[in-house]
Amino acid sequence: MNGKYAVLHLSALMLLSGTVISCKKDNRPVENFPAPTPARLEVPGNLPKVADDADNPLSAEGIELGRILFYDARLSGNNKLSCASCHRQDIAFSDATALTSIGVSSKPLHRHTPTLFNLAWAKSGLFWDGGSKNLESQALGPLTSEDEMHQDLYELERELKAVPDYVKRFKLVFNREITSTDVLKALAQFQRTLISAGSRYDLYIRKVPGATLSSQELQGLTLVNAKCGSCHQGELFTDDGYHNNGIDANFPYDLEGIYQGRYRVSFDPADMGKFKTPSLRNVMLTAPYMHDGRFSNLDQVLDHYRSGITYSATVDRALYQNNGNLGIPISQAEKAAIKAFLSALTDDAFTKNKKFSNPN
Amino acid sequence: MPQRIIFKKMKKFLTIISLSAILFTSCSKDELVAVADGAGKTTLTFDATFNGNDFALNKDFALGTKTFNFTKFRYWVSNVALINAAGEEVKVPGSYYLLEETGAINLVGVNNDNAGTIYPATKREDVLLKEIPAGDYKAIKFGVGVDQKYNDNMSLQSGELSQLNGMTNVSWMWLTSYIFTSATGTVKEGTASKTLKVETGLNANYKTVALNLPQSIKIGSSKSANIVINVDLSKAFDGIDVMATPTVGASQAAVMSAVAANYGGKVFSVKSAN
After folding, report:
1. Diameter over CA atoms, chain B
2. Does residue B7 fall inside a structural domain?
3. Which one, A213, B19, B201, B214, has the greatest CB density within 10 A?
4. How far is A351 from chain B (nearest CA, A)?
């Protein structure tokens, strides 16, 4: 059928059918509630661009709702724990504990609380093994786990619906009554705004007038790029990837594979013992280190990379020297310079930013 | 709003109905598509069976040298599409359905363990497909499980998808995904008895089933149709040594893929269509 013929037929049939259905402008029911105010992430110039999440568009009111929920102990089963109980702003939303036992069951967790910042760029999964594909789904883990917040999702909805302010806020942001899925969305919106890029290093790299790094710090920057940069790369100081950094020889299948790292998610033998690369930003604030918090300070971490790498089949190639030996050569002077530079990655503006603090 | 009607090719004759559909799809994406004149309904019945017998809970079923007895059989059906006489797919919007036969489920480890957080005993085999454009249909397609977009993001809702009905649990939440299929009970062989828990999930195991109808069926405002799918659960265990692997889940990745392949290729067949 040629195009012209089709068009003729179309017009004829449209006339014949008599009622031509018009396109309505908006199918949302008319409500007395105004629409939420669209918001965008403010990304400092040295960070990569970030795409909006079409499935959970940011709004000013959604971000604020997420912030209120983040600090609300109603989210836990015993109404004593909020997200902020394990994610403290003053230490870059980490918890200063290797394996915390402040959860509802009082049992120690099996993995260390991760930091929360620059999550808008975390595109390869959340948790140390990336088992969660996005921030929205991620929240279900800690919310429901009996060793963490142990919340009943029906009870969560009931408790929030009993608060008129929440009813109003959820209605405004999501245009419906409170659901646990919208709790996830609001929390994710707030967490995406947690951008840390205001350290002395950032001011220096953005050529803010007066911003300087000392010669030792600059030497440390060069060393970090050369010796750590294959994983802790770019302006985010993480490749958002998974690596076996040689801290264990064996990865037993216990606790549904929790010690097997990325393998638990991908079932690819090449991923055995690999865990997510954490950012070096704010690293001075976020001890202890590793997925189980086994190293209590940075000296232990640097000594591990220098002389403590344990062999297993999936140890990252970047941890081998040209002569085939394991470990990254680091002199004492270099270690001091690296630590000096890492201190320049501490972002006080972030840890003190009122927009991220408890609103109450 | 997903585009409801996708045209693969233009045929010689355009009906008024398909014409309207073209007009609708020219509207902006947010547009709610009005119901086309003459749209009809179809009941889709998923008739659970086991090796030729009607499926029931707490009943012994023989299969070779083994005896199965089930406490639960649940699975997601999603992205249902009917194929019309011209070979075009008519997608059913928001088609995510939980088919099941189960006793009461304590939602411990799903929503946690508050009194009252019990999923009630349910038997559900029928799905009503509404607003199907009038026409002749010759085949049906559907997914077993939940497609990647929704499986990866539990904050998104469509159809009956919910993280509150026990087709997720905490260990699956660490992998944030739905349980696609779940069959639990016991299996016996000789004097050996094992607790059976065979579940599938993960994006790679989302399967699309395409089935031709024995003859074309007519759907329209004056004619409701009924398609009956035979769901032979025994086929899910084809080639699986359930005595050796009575628990199948994410940690038994290879066996789980084999079970998922059975759901994709063997479990479902068309019993009748009229």
Report:
1. 66
2. no
3. B201
4. 28
The β-bridge partners of B54 are B49
* ipTM passes above 0.95: no
The stretches of A228-269 forming alpha helices (DSSP H) are 263-266
B102 domain residue, yes or no: yes
The reply to whether B183 falls in a domain is yes
Domain count across chain B:
1
Residue range(s) defining the domain that contains residue B122 = 40-273
The helix/strand/coil state of A321 is coil
Give all domains of chain A, ordered by start, each with its CATH number: 60-196 (1.10.760.10), 200-350 (1.10.760.10)
CB-based contact B173 A267, cutoff 8 Å = no
Going from the first residue of chain B to its last (274 residues), give the mean pLDDT of each consecutive group of 10, the final group possibly shorter.
38 40 41 58 97 97 97 97 96 96 83 75 95 94 97 92 79 78 97 96 95 95 92 97 94 92 98 95
> What is this structure's pTM?
0.85
pLDDT in tens, A184-210: 999 999 999 999 999 999 999 999 999
Report if residue B26 sits inside a domain. Answer: no
B35 touches A: beta carbon within 8 Å: no
Kindly report the nearest CA distance between residue A331 and chain B, in angstroms. Answer: 40
Within 66-95 of A, beta carbons closer than 8 Å to B belong to: 77
The shortest C-alpha distance from A58 to chain B (Å) reads: 14
DSSP result, B87-101? S-EEE-TT-EEEEEE
Task: Give the number of other CB atoms < 10 A from CB of residue A32.
Answer: 5
